[in-house]
UniProtKB/TrEMBL annotation:
Residues 1-149 form the FAS1 domain. Pfam families: Fasciclin (PF02469). The lineage of its organism: Eukaryota, Viridiplantae, Chlorophyta, core chlorophytes, Chlorophyceae. This is FAS1 domain-containing protein. InterPro entries: FAS1_dom_sf, FAS1_domain.
Length: 177
């Protein structure tokens, strides 16, 4: 693979994962969507935080965890640019997985994405910041983010949590009550 242009964030791992998991079949050239694609650094941080050794190991997690995590990063039916977001007001948008994401644009232009009901995941706080906004991809808009968001607890079962080397009690405590 070629290196990205100077100053661009690398996203090869996320793109490979979307292809491996079949997301590219769900989000085709004709799909209108907003996609929050984690940067390579975010993907590799998640790999090490769940005790995996090779980046491709995270695509083979049990019980569709990888697919669900990927679907959580896609808002179908709308191609939101950062400039479409109101300033200092959260927008709640339903993801391809089902739960909503809270998307927020601050006065300084910083855009953050969070999962209501989840304080944190195995890779830290469950809030991602957009590193590179508004990248057109066919009929979709892609935003490169600094963190892999994790689904709400009801989308991940206890057996899967145990397989990620995260204690169930700790994972359960990461959910806002």
């Amino acid at each position: 693979m070629r290196a990205p242009p100077p100053g661009r964030v690398q996203v090869y791992v996320g793109k490979e994962g979307f292809t491996y998991l079949g997301i590219d079949k769900l989000v085709t050239n004709d799909t209108v969507a907003t996609i929050f694609l984690p940067a390579d650094s975010a993907m590799l941080n998640l790999v090490s935080s769940i005790g995996k050794q090779i980046r491709y190991d995270m695509f083979d997690m049990p019980n569709n965890v990888s697919l669900n995590v990927s679907k959580l990063h896609i808002i179908p039916g709308v191609a939101l640019k950062s400039t479409d977001l109101p300033v200092d007001k959260a927008v709640n948008a339903t993801t391809l997985l089902g739960p909503k994401l809270k998307v927020f644009r601050a006065k300084n232009g910083t855009v953050t994405i969070s999962v209501p009901g989840r304080k944190s995941g195995p890779n830290g706080p469950n809030v991602a910041t957009v590193l590179e906004p508004d990248l057109p991809f066919n009929k979709a808009i892609v935003h490169i983010v600094d963190r892999v968001l994790m689904p709400p607890l009801e989308f991940v079962d206890k057996k899967t949590i145990m397989s990620l080397n995260v204690t169930y009690t700790g994972y359960e405590k990461s959910v806002d009550k």
